């Protein structure tokens, strides 16, 4: 099959390398808003490049991977669906809820699968936690704790267009909570703080945030995030039940040091998401190839991305207005 890739930045270049290594993918065609960068990445990987992103739609693609900046996601997904090419799109599907709903309306009835890139659904720890919940081994779940702690902030230029900490970062945790528990969020209470670079406050954002989510069965989920965790990149999800508990993301590279007994990680901490989730990123693209081939159902349709986005939107409003927000208040 022939797979196109739009956007060869950090994550896009990684996806191109993964696709090139999949036996079933006969050709990878890459494009970027910067044609020179597309040619450079293509040359390094031994794949083909085209000088314009729109040229991908005349390249006879079976599928398209969208790894561009967020503003380009929606039009590319719609164009690919119109061309009959299956789509893998990094989160979010669009920059806001209305844009996401417009994409859903545009692709409805097309028969073209659109898979959203929530890679934690393919992480071994998250999958094992989901199975522990589904099997009943933990008993009734009462608490979930999730965190995404970045070691350093993104570039300053990224912050004003990121959508904010909850939409850009914690949305992965929100999807993870839903995926692992199988429950829906009904209300949120969120807060945030700025103690780092002034760019966050100037952009109406926060560099550190926390949210309490109430799920539809009464389970409480506590989600925390920061752009300043110098110890290393730390993503964990803990599930606590009446009979047991499990944690995803706790290993000898988790950047945690005990204050009492001197325990510390045996290996170097993870430095960023591409390293921490390398296996999951590969697994989700393998799943996408299976979707393109018609061998499996779509593991993360855009409706799932929309539900996580609703939670992120509710958290952002809760933070700004300093009140509890129900998901129904933001649902369209």
Automatic annotation (TrEMBL):
Gene3D superfamilies: Dihydrodipicolinate Reductase, domain 2 (3.30.360.10), NAD(P)-binding Rossmann-like Domain (3.40.50.720)
Coiled-coil region: none
Top-rank taxon: Bacteria
One Pfam family, short name: GFO_IDH_MocA_C3
Keywords: Oxidoreductase
Domain Gfo/Idh/MocA-like oxidoreductase N-terminal positions: 1-118
Domain GFO/IDH/MocA-like oxidoreductase: 127-246
Keyword Oxidoreductase assigned: yes
Family: Belongs to the Gfo/Idh/MocA family.
Protein's recorded name: Gfo/Idh/MocA family oxidoreductase
Species for this entry: Actinomadura vinacea
């Amino acid at each position: 099959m022939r797979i196109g890739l739009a956007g060869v930045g950090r994550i896009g270049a990684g996806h191109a390398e993964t696709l090139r290594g999949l036996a079933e993918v006969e050709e990878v065609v890459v494009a970027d808003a910067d044609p020179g960068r597309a040619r450079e990445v293509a040359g390094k990987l031994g794949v083909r490049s085209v000088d314009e992103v729109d040229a991908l739609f005349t390249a006879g693609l079976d599928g398209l991977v969208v790894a561009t900046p967020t503003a380009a996601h929606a039009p590319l997904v719609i164009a690919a669906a119109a061309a009959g090419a299956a789509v893998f799109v990094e989160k979010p599907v669009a920059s806001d809820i209305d844009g996401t709903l417009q994409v859903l309306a545009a692709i409805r009835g097309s028969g073209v699968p659109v898979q959203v890139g929530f890679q934690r659904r393919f992480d071994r720890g998250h999958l094992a936690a989901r199975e522990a919940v589904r099997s009943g081994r933990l008993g009734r779940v009462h608490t979930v704790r999730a965190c995404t702690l970045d070691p350093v902030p993104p570039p300053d230029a990224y912050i004003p267009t990121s959508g904010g900490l909850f939409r850009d970062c914690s949305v992965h945790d929100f999807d993870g909570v839903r995926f692992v528990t199988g429950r829906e969020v009904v209300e949120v209470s969120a807060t945030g703080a700025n103690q780092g670079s002034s760019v966050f406050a100037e952009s109406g954002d926060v560099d550190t945030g926390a949210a309490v989510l109430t799920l539809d069965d009464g389970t409480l989920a506590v989600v925390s995030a920061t752009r300043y965790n110098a110890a290393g990149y730390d993503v964990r999800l803990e599930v606590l039940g009446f009979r047991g508990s499990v944690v995803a993301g706790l290993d000898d590279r988790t950047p945690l040091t005990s204050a009492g007994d001197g325990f510390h990680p045996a290996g170097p901490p993870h430095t960023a998401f591409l390293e921490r989730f390398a296996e999951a990123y590969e697994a989700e693209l393998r799943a996408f190839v299976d979707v393109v081939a018609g061998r499996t159902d779509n593991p993360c349709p855009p409706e799932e991305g929309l539900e996580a986005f609703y939670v992120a939107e509710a958290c952002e409003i809760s933070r700004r207005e300093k009140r509890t927000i129900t998901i129904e208040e933001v649902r369209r």
